[in-house]
Amino acid sequence: MRTGSSRGSLRVLGIDPGLTRCGVGVVDVAPDRSAQLVHVGVVRSDADAPIEERLAVIAAGLRAVLEAHGPDVVAVERVFAQHNRQTVMGTAQASGIALLIAGERGIPAATHTPSEVKAAITGYGNADKRQVQTMVARVLRLEELPKPADAADALALALCHAWRGAPAASGRSSSPLTPAQRAWADAERLARR
Amino acid sequence: MRTGSSRGSLRVLGIDPGLTRCGVGVVDVAPDRSAQLVHVGVVRSDADAPIEERLAVIAAGLRAVLEAHGPDVVAVERVFAQHNRQTVMGTAQASGIALLIAGERGIPAATHTPSEVKAAITGYGNADKRQVQTMVARVLRLEELPKPADAADALALALCHAWRGAPAASGRSSSPLTPAQRAWADAERLARR
C-alpha cells in the first residue's frame, strides 16, 4: 500500500465531507514539514438517490480510499450548525460517515475548522480559497491547482492536520507539540484573531 | 428471525438517533393498524471516547439490531439544524449512521419529524412526551411505559412510520395511501395546524 512514503513520515487522509461530493486527499508529510501527494479525488453520490443509498455510496467510496492508501490518521472538516442550514444536515451526516470509517478500522480521526485549515496552510485564517489552493499546489509541487475545490480542500485539511500536531476530534488530549510546532500554533492563533 | 410477525404485517425499526443514547424499537404493524412489540432497547456510546470510536460503537449496535430482527424498513427521527446547537451535530452524525446501516443492506429508510410522530401517535402535533409514551404503551399492550425516553421515542417513530403510509426520507415519492390512511393523514395535517 505505502508506495511513496519515506520512513518517519505521517500519511494523512483528509476528507472534505459532503453528500454530493466528498473531497479526499492523501499526503505523506515528513518531520521537516515537506509533503508528497499520494492521492486526490472526489467521492460522489447521486442527488436523486434516497439519502440512505447516498450515504452507503459515500461510505463505500471512502473505505476504498482507506484500503488503497492505509493512512495513519484521518482528518475531517468540522461542520458547524450555524452555517448554510439547508445543506448542513447532509454535510454533518457525511462527516459522521467519514469519522465512522476511521473508527471502524481503529484509525484515529481528528476534525479541523475551515479557519484552522486556512491559518495552517497560508498563515492567515481569513485566506480565500484561491490562496489556499495555490499554497497546496506549491507545497505538493503540483503543476496545476487541484480541482475540484472539494479535492483541494481535502488536501489542505490533510496538510493542516500534519502541520498542526494533530489535535484530536474530541475527548482526547492533543499530542505534545515540538517547540517549532508550538511557535507555529501560536502564530496561527494570532493570525486568527 | 421473524418470530411474532403475522403475514402481511410490516416490521419497522425505529431509531431515535443520538451519540450518547440511540433508542431502537422494532414493531410489527398489521394492515388493521394493530401493533406488536418485537424489540426495544438503547445503543449507548461512552461520552469520553473519541467521536470516531463512538460512531463505530453505534453502527455496530444498530447493525446487531438489524441482523437480529430483519425489519422491512428503518424509520429515523429527522434532525433540524436550528434545535439545540450544542448537540445537534452529534445527533446528525448518529442519524447519518442510522440511515447508512439501512442503505448498506438495501433496506429502505425514511425520516419523520418529532411533530409528525406526535401527531401520528396522539393525533396532536404538540403532545407532550408523557402522552406519546402512554399511547405507545397502550397500543403495544405494555404494562409499563417504555424507558428510557429514547427507547419510547424509537417505538413511537416505528409506529408513526407504519401508520403514516411511509413517506420516504428524500428523493422518492410516497407510497400510495389507502383511503383510510389518507383520511388519517388529512386528520394529522389538521391536527398540526
Automatic annotation (TrEMBL), chains A, B:
<comment type="similarity">
    <text>Belongs to the RuvC family.</text>
</comment>
<dbReference type="GO" id="GO:0006310">
    <property type="term" value="P:DNA recombination"/>
</dbReference>
<keyword id="KW-0460">Magnesium</keyword>
<keyword id="KW-0963">Cytoplasm</keyword>
<feature type="binding site">
    <location>
        <position position="150"/>
    </location>
    <ligand>
        <name>Mg(2+) 1</name>
    </ligand>
</feature>
<keyword id="KW-0255">Endonuclease</keyword>
<comment type="subunit">
    <text>Homodimer which binds Holliday junction (HJ) DNA. The HJ becomes 2-fold symmetrical on binding to RuvC with unstacked arms; it has a different conformation from HJ DNA in complex with RuvA. In the full resolvosome a probable DNA-RuvA(4)-RuvB(12)-RuvC(2) complex forms which resolves the HJ.</text>
</comment>
<feature type="active site">
    <location>
        <position position="77"/>
    </location>
</feature>
<feature type="binding site">
    <location>
        <position position="77"/>
    </location>
    <ligand>
        <name>Mg(2+) 2</name>
    </ligand>
</feature>
<protein>
    <recommendedName>
        <fullName>Crossover junction endodeoxyribonuclease RuvC</fullName>
        <ecNumber>3.1.21.10</ecNumber>
    </recommendedName>
</protein>
<keyword id="KW-0378">Hydrolase</keyword>
<dbReference type="GO" id="GO:0003677">
    <property type="term" value="F:DNA binding"/>
</dbReference>
<dbReference type="GO" id="GO:0000287">
    <property type="term" value="F:magnesium ion binding"/>
</dbReference>
<keyword id="KW-0479">Metal-binding</keyword>
<dbReference type="GO" id="GO:0008821">
    <property type="term" value="F:crossover junction DNA endonuclease activity"/>
</dbReference>
<dbReference type="InterPro" id="IPR036397">
    <property type="entry name" value="RNaseH_sf"/>
</dbReference>
<keyword id="KW-0233">DNA recombination</keyword>
<dbReference type="GO" id="GO:0006281">
    <property type="term" value="P:DNA repair"/>
</dbReference>
<comment type="function">
    <text>The RuvA-RuvB-RuvC complex processes Holliday junction (HJ) DNA during genetic recombination and DNA repair. Endonuclease that resolves HJ intermediates. Cleaves cruciform DNA by making single-stranded nicks across the HJ at symmetrical positions within the homologous arms, yielding a 5'-phosphate and a 3'-hydroxyl group; requires a central core of homology in the junction. The consensus cleavage sequence is 5'-(A/T)TT(C/G)-3'. Cleavage occurs on the 3'-side of the TT dinucleotide at the point of strand exchange.</text>
</comment>
<feature type="active site">
    <location>
        <position position="16"/>
    </location>
</feature>
<feature type="binding site">
    <location>
        <position position="16"/>
    </location>
    <ligand>
        <name>Mg(2+) 1</name>
    </ligand>
</feature>
<dbReference type="Pfam" id="PF02075">
    <property type="entry name" value="RuvC"/>
</dbReference>
<keyword id="KW-0540">Nuclease</keyword>
<keyword id="KW-0227">DNA damage</keyword>
<dbReference type="GO" id="GO:0048476">
    <property type="term" value="C:Holliday junction resolvase complex"/>
</dbReference>
<dbReference type="InterPro" id="IPR012337">
    <property type="entry name" value="RNaseH-like_sf"/>
</dbReference>
<keyword id="KW-0238">DNA-binding</keyword>
<feature type="region of interest" description="Disordered">
    <location>
        <begin position="168"/>
        <end position="193"/>
    </location>
</feature>
<dbReference type="GO" id="GO:0005737">
    <property type="term" value="C:cytoplasm"/>
</dbReference>
<keyword id="KW-0234">DNA repair</keyword>
<feature type="active site">
    <location>
        <position position="150"/>
    </location>
</feature>
<dbReference type="InterPro" id="IPR020563">
    <property type="entry name" value="X-over_junc_endoDNase_Mg_BS"/>
</dbReference>
<dbReference type="InterPro" id="IPR002176">
    <property type="entry name" value="X-over_junc_endoDNase_RuvC"/>
</dbReference>
